[in-house]
Design a protein that fits this description.
five-stranded parallel beta sheet, globular, 5 helices, alpha/beta, single chain, two-stranded antiparallel sheet
C-alpha cells in the first residue's frame, strides 16, 4: 500500500469527491487538508457550485468525468459506499490516475473494484497509522514526503485546468 500512497501523491492534481461546505464534515476537512498544503485541488459535488475554504473559493465539478486533467489527477473519496462505487466507475472511465477511499466510504465491493481497476494506485482498507485504516488526514503528510512533494509553497492556491 505504501507504493500506492507514493503514486497517489505523485500526481500533479487532486480532487475530493464528497467535498462539502459544512466544516463539520470530512468532505470539508479533507478538502481543507489539500488547501492548507497549497496542493492543486478540485472539489467534486453535484449539488454545490463552489466551496470556500478560508478566503479561497474553489469551483466544484459535478462528477468524476468533469475533473480537469484526469490522467494526472488523484481522487480522494469521502462518500457513502453505494455512491463511492458509482464514483469509482466514473473515475475509471474518465482515466483518473489513483484513488484514496477514506475510512467508511467503501464496502467490500467498492474496495475490490478499486484494487482491480486502479492497480497499484488504490488506497483503502486496513493499514496506515490511524485505527480505522488509511486516512488522508492521518497518513497524507507522510505520503507527500514519500512522493518528495514540496510543502514550502504555502499561500499559493494552484488550479488544474483542462
Amino acid at each position: 500500500m505504501e507504493a500506492a500512497v507514493k503514486k497517489f501523491f505523485s500526481s500533479s492534481c487532486f480532487a475530493v469527491a464528497g467535498a462539502s461546505q459544512d466544516t463539520h464534515k470530512y468532505g470539508y476537512k479533507v478538502l481543507a487538508w489539500y488547501h492548507e498544503r497549497s496542493l492543486p485541488v478540485t472539489p467534486l459535488n453535484p449539488r454545490t457550485p463552489d466551496i470556500t475554504i478560508r478566503s479561497h473559493t474553489y469551483t466544484a465539478v459535478p462528477s468524476a468525468s468533469a475533473i480537469p486533467s484526469p490522467a494526472t489527477t488523484s481522487l480522494s473519496i469521502i462518500t457513502p459506499p453505494p455512491v463511492t462505487l458509482r464514483i469509482l466507475r466514473e473515475a475509471k472511465e474518465a482515466g483518473i490516475a489513483a484513488v484514496w477511499m477514506q475510512p467508511g466510504s467503501f464496502d467490500a465491493e467498492g474496495l475490490e473494484f478499486a484494487k482491480k481497476n486502479f492497480k497499484g494506485a488504490a488506497i483503502g482498507g486496513k493499514g496506515g497509522r490511524g485505527g480505522e485504516g488509511w486516512c488522508v488526514l492521518v497518513d497524507g503528510d507522510e505520503g507527500l514526503r514519500r512522493a518528495n512533494r514540496d510543502l514550502e509553497r504555502k499561500g499559493e492556491y494552484l488550479l488544474c485546468r483542462w
